[in-house]
Amino acid sequence: MTFTDHPIETPPRAPSPVHRFGTLAVHAGAPHDPSTGAVIEPISLSTTFAQTSVGKPVGIYEYSRSSNPNRDNFETAVAAIENAKYALAFASGSATTAIILQSLAAGSHVISVSDVYGGTHRYFTQVAKAHGVKVTFTPEIEVDIRDHITSETKLIWIETPSNPTLRLVDIRAVASQAHEHGIKVVVDNTFLSPYVQNPLDHGADIVVHSVTKYINGHSDVVMGVAAFNSDEMKQRLGFLQNAIGAVPSAFDSWLAHRGLKTLHLRAREATVNATAVAHALEASPHVISVNYPGIDSHPHRAIAIKQHRNGMGGGMLSFRIKGGHAAAERFCQSTSLFTLAESLGGIESLIEVPSSMTHSGIPKEDREAVGVFDDLVRVSCGIEDAEDLKADVLQALEKAVVLPKITNGLNGVNGQATL
């Protein structure tokens, strides 16, 4: 039988929750301690758990690589806010990617959007092929997905929005085509968080996050998570989680769970701030273009309205600055509230130049083919005051673009002023 004889149905989503997002974020996976009544779970740092007799532990825990109370509670919370049946946490977002790719048999084929996170691109191009998995990249995955499907295609990988160009993908359109051929769909939802978008509701089979970003939200934890509804997937990925052992610590799980409880508040404020900054950048004569799905000029705004909560754009944006790479660097060194640093999704605002930082490992021609030019600046808006962030961006633009022209004019030729 050929691969076209094996269509799959989207696994049924978890039952609709009784409570809304904010209530789930605060209460899911957060039982009161039965012995003390503590409303915040204690941190269980023990690596091993006593057994009453051989093979009979006191409770449900034996060894913390296999399972831990704090990790279990965090996974329960993530599953609740992603409308999933299951969630599994890993030591990083990259470890999550690796585990999912490791679940594929040698000889498998994956189709991925072209403009993915640099670490994902690195794994796909330099590691996956080492265990016999081939990855094909395509810039317009809804349009030409059928052209790339082969009898060995097992997985389609989507980032929406993509990193760092903020392109959107219609998840339902891709999932409908993929499932006709028995192919599963993974969506990296890191840029939006479960508050803004729930990919499983749109037909995806797995949703992944770098918990380091919005879910934890405080720039003090490195972690990843995958959520899904399939019982078979729970067995397979759960086996690999334990066998490979790339699991988060109890303390990191506790911290991430604490951060998750305020996700809805932080995501809303970050969206307000990013929207204000995007409009300010779009109106500036020093900016070539702005990539932000929360404004009408975004080419995929209709997808945002369909897929995102209340059409929100999230806290991430990018823009091309006039003056090339040098101007992009000057801009990043001229802000006072935005910190020049990699990562995103924290309470503090960050900026970076992808071509020289997060995506520097991708060949220049490949970067530019998907819009990652040397003059592109990526912005992660935190939860500061929007007016302060706008003012910081505008003054940095003046210093990066206008001031060098004035300085060059005053210096003139051979130090002589030319006015």
TrEMBL record:
Q: Which residues form a coiled coil?
A: none
Name its GO BP terms in alphabetical order. Answer: cysteine biosynthetic process via cystathionine; transsulfuration
Pfam families listed in its UniProt record: Cys_Met_Meta_PP (PF01053)
Top-rank taxon of the source lineage equals Eukaryota
This protein's UniProt keywords: Amino-acid biosynthesis, Cysteine biosynthesis, Pyridoxal phosphate, Transferase
Q: Which residues carry this modification: N6-(pyridoxal phosphate)lysine?
A: K213
Gene3D superfamilies hit by this protein: Aspartate Aminotransferase, domain 1, Type I PLP-dependent aspartate aminotransferase-like (Major domain)
What is this protein identified as? cystathionine gamma-lyase
Q: Name one GO cellular component term.
A: cytoplasm
Query: Its family?
Result: Belongs to the trans-sulfuration enzymes family.
Q: Which cofactor does it need?
A: pyridoxal 5'-phosphate
Organism, by scientific name, is Venustampulla echinocandica
| GO MF terms, alphabetically ordered | cystathionine gamma-lyase activity; pyridoxal phosphate binding; transferase activity
Keyword Electron transport, does the record have it? Answer: no
